[in-house]
Amino acid sequence: MHNPNNLSKSYKEIIKQHVFTLFNGINVVLAIFVFFTGSYRNMLFMITVILNMVIGLFQEIRSKHMLDKLSLLNQTKIHVIRNNTELELSVEEVKVNDILVLYAGDEISFDGHIISGNIECDESMLTGESDAVYKQENSSLLSGSFVISGKCWMHVDKVGQDTYAYSILKHAKRFKRYPSQLRDSIDWIIKWCTYILIPLGCVLFIKQLIKTNYTTATLNTVAGVVGMIPEGLVFLTSVALAISAYKLGKQKVLVQELYCIETLARTDTLCLDKTGTLTQGKLSVCHVEKIENVDGILGDMMQALPDDNATAIAIRNYFKARNYKKVVSYLPFSSQRKYSSVTFEDGEYKLGAYSYIAKEIDLDVEKHIEDYTSQAMRVVVLMKDNAVLAYICLRDELRPDAKDTLNFFKKQGVDIKIISGDDPRTVEALARKAGFTSKSIDMSTIKDVEMVVDSYSIFGRVTPEQKKELVLALKRRNKTVAMTGDGVNDVMALKEADCSIAMGSGSQACKSVASLVLLENQMNTLPVILYQGRCVINNIQRTASLFLVKTIFSIGLSLLTLVCLKNYPFKPIQLTLISALATGIPSFILTLEPNGNIVKENFLRNVISKALPGAICVICSVIGVSILGHFVYISPNEYSTMCTILAGVNALMVLIRVCVPMTMLRKILVTIMSVIFAGSIILCKNFFYIVHLQWYEIIYVILNVCLIPFILTLVSNWVKMIFKKINHKKKKFGN
């Protein structure tokens, strides 16, 4: 049977992702063509391809081991009755005809029917409707739904692939495509490179075959096509995300959706549920004001009710006395209803939020409750026939790391919204303890969240439906929304958030839809996740520009070769040297470098604007060599030597610009790459087809090298001006 908690890729999927790719296939075909020319050294580019593949496989498998290990800690436990004993078993251990005990927050992983008890169920994953469905004895239960309130005993009729919702449950963790500029931008780059390189490569080969021989045409075409392939970009993105997931795993953060690491880094609005996220979720009764002697009544109620939320547990532990009244019926607590009730022979008793129970609001009672809530207490009332019998005050302490976490996000410019089902006055008082000062609002009187979402930051008496609507309202304002939660009442909002974060102690349903799970409920890891996301985005953004320099100038030079250049200026091994020293090795090191700077602007725009100047500079240098060849004789080997030196120096100059501001690591990196490039040109010239140049060729190369920094600056300013005008037009016409 499929384990719905197995979140990592299989070994087969990892191998397929890294080995059987379009670009790897193209590289293999190109290597075969080169092999038949007999110029084996020009197959050196395959070493880079193989190294990329091996490193990618290693990092993904290491990340998989960490994910699998954490998944076991987060694995759903099923309460099963066997031999009159309640056991906690994994999903795979449950069999047909087993009897399960279902509690509020449990995800139902099997088809069956209720044999005892009653619950309210959310079947939105199956029906699309979020309304609670009441289930009682003999009612059917389907996998893919979860328990909102109540408790029942379920007979298992079907398991595994026989269940009605097997296919839905199998993909529950991937129920939607999370937003990701990084993924979408790289997909766009790969798509257009694929569209261009195959037809352009074919035309380039035909054109050169007409003018030269098969060997020259093949080597020149392979050099052009290899240059167009940004295969390292996909590899480095995959590696960067896998390493981030591994590092977060060591912090006991289970990453269920890789690209949500990036999404949290772009988050500008953080929605926090109060209970269990901002607070510890361990309620205790701190004060009871009795209008009548209610100890026995509350003891009877808590024995009759199946509720096992934090409030019910605290009250059950406090009121142990019993009157042993006969129970006629009961209604468990739900987040929508905000109260529970038990009917005895002498009438119905209700326990919960006063404003939801009372038929007519008594202002004196409201004022009395406000006195308690202003002290950061949660107040529930016991009522019968619209009369208050007791005020029960509960206290939930802030998490030790809550204040520091909130301060961190405020300093980062992230707007914080605290959303809770509790009395807004209680929530506001707790928020003040965490150093968060803002106005609160009682959402029980609000019909349209659009009216209040901008004006308030603390929302109390929020229903699960309103939580979802608040998240959607923020997204309609083009906000990137992260949501934390731990209860079944948070599920709908978590599903809609751009990045959803569940507490490890939260309900099964909550954890199943979350993109990140804090296994030890550690709020202080949210800044760590944010930092890892920024590292991924900033470093990939920097290294992507290095890869695109090569891709853009290879496409440009291929087009110019079709139109006006005699030959493609590089041999495959020369381009491999430039790629390895100015792109491959540096990009791998820079991708793993710490970089927690705030993410700004559009990823694709940033990458292209940084890559274009370097690419244009290489194209201009090659055109200059070609023009010189019209006035003085330059042999094909001298032509490729001059172009290789100029392209290599240009690529190293781009690397230097990318490394600004310089750190010691970056200085060492640039120095080593420059020394190796110079050494390769001087000491291994025969291997890389480098030949001696004429005096006038040497003078041209020196002059061009001196001009490269100025050309790069000039083109960079021009590109910035162009993008600035584009941005201005987009803003003017509403994007």
From TrEMBL:
Places the protein is found: Membrane
Keyword list, A-Z: Membrane, Translocase, Transmembrane, Transmembrane helix
InterPro entries, alphabetized: ATPase_P-typ_cyto_dom_N, ATPase_P-typ_P_site, ATPase_P-typ_TM_dom_sf, ATPase_P-typ_transduc_dom_A_sf, ATPase_P-type_domA, HAD-like_sf, HAD_sf, P_typ_ATPase
Source taxon at top rank: Bacteria
SUPFAM superfamilies linked: Calcium ATPase, transduction domain A, Calcium ATPase, transmembrane domain M, HAD-like, Metal cation-transporting ATPase, ATP-binding domain N
TM annotation in the entry: 20-37, 43-61, 192-210, 222-246, 547-568, 574-592, 612-633, 639-656, 668-692, 698-723
Primary site of residence: membrane
Domain P-type ATPase A: 73-172
Protein name, per record: HAD-IC family P-type ATPase
